[in-house]
Design goal:
Layout (H helix, E strand, L loop, with lengths): L5 H13 L30 H8 L16 E10 L2 E10 L4 H11 L3 H5 L12 E7 L2 E6 L11 H13 L7 E6 L2 E2 L2 E2 L2 E2 L16 E5 L10 E7 L5 E7 L5 E8 L8 E7 L7 E10 L6 E11 L2
Parallel strand pairs: 4-5
Antiparallel strand pairs: 1-2, 3-4, 5-6, 7-8, 9-10, 10-13, 11-12, 11-14, 14-15
Helix pairs in contact: 3-5
């Protein structure tokens, strides 16, 4: 009997092993997608096996740059003036530990075009910049450029200071404000003594009888629309009207502030209205005169009404 070459025997043995059942050291079954796995709409995290494969498949052969997540923002109050009184509106700033500086920067930018058309002004001179803002033990120190003191009349300077004080003291961590000009602490700003921390109570006389915190000028409002703010009015009664683009009244209601006739309280009311299409409108918030029922202490907020 002729003997087979040794090489042929080895080859047949290896073929048999390759066709057999996988051993415990094999690659095993193909991986399957599990809950939480990435998808084309949700790129894999850096450093994962799928992320590496994705980078290898890119035209440049390099890992594509990650798309930064949109910055979260928060609404903050900015206090301007209208008819010689404080007027509150709102701005958006990134959610950071520096929201106070963000709010003050927005204040220094001044009213928007829509706000300016509605009569809002700022007593702070154009070009005023914020060098720094430091908060310690509840007191914020705002370091402003020298233009903050410029062209100040005795009547305008307190309202100018009040804009800064009200904007900064909206935050619960700030109870008072000190001022510095070009890095130098001040005890007098534009002729106004500021040696002690300036508080809202010191400038309460610059608040109008009614403030409207929502909606803000230029907002597109829902239907019904929620109207809120603060008031110090006779018997705490706050009235609200909605006017359409033709100036016709399309809704009216009233509510009661939490305090009134000598004290300031918050108010909030929701009002349904009807319009056939989106259009300019006006939210009118006022007090009815105790003498003759006529509207007094009127605040008009131009908005866009929606069906």
């Amino acid at each position: 009997m002729k003997r087979l070459p040794i090489l042929m025997i080895v080859g047949v043995s290896l073929l048999a092993v390759g066709c057999g059942t996988p051993s415990s050291g094999s690659l095993g079954p193909a991986p399957t997608t599990t809950a939480g796995a990435s998808s084309p709409a949700s790129p894999p995290a850096s450093g994962t096996a799928s992320g590496t494969a994705s980078a290898a498949a890119s035209p440049s052969g390099q890992r594509p740059a990650a798309t930064p997540a949109p910055a979260r923002e928060i609404g903050v109050q900015t206090w301007f003036s209208r008819n010689g009184k404080l007027f509150v509106t709102q701005r958006s700033v990134p959610v950071t530990t520096g929201v106070g500086r963000g709010a003050l920067d927005r204040l220094l930018t001044g009213p928007s075009a829509a706000e300016n058309a509605a009569g809002l002004r700022t007593q702070i001179p154009a070009g005023t910049t914020l060098h720094g803002l430091r908060i310690s033990a509840g007191i914020a120190t705002a370091d402003l450029s020298s233009s903050f003191e410029s062209a100040a009349s005795p009547s305008a300077m307190p309202l100018r200071i009040a804009q800064v004080v009200y904007t900064l003291t909206q935050f619960p961590t700030v109870t008072g404000v000190r001022f510095a000009i070009d890095g130098q602490g001040k005890t007098v700003v534009g002729g106004v003594p500021v040696q002690s921390p300036q508080t809202r109570a010191m400038y309460g006389g610059y608040l109008p009888a009614i403030t409207v915190q929502s909606p803000v000028i230029g907002a597109q409002v829902g239907n019904p629309v929620a109207v809120s703010g603060t008031a110090d009015v006779f018997e705490a009664t706050v009235s609200v009207r909605i006017l359409n683009s033709a100036g016709h009244e399309i809704a009216r209601t009233f509510t009661t502030a939490s305090c009134g006739t000598g004290c300031r309280g918050g108010y909030s009311v929701t009002i349904p209205y009807s319009v056939p299409r989106a259009q300019p409108g006006t939210i009118v918030v006022f007090e009815s005169s105790a003498k003759d029922g006529q509207p007094v202490n009127v605040q008009q907020i131009p908005v866009t009404l929606t069906p």
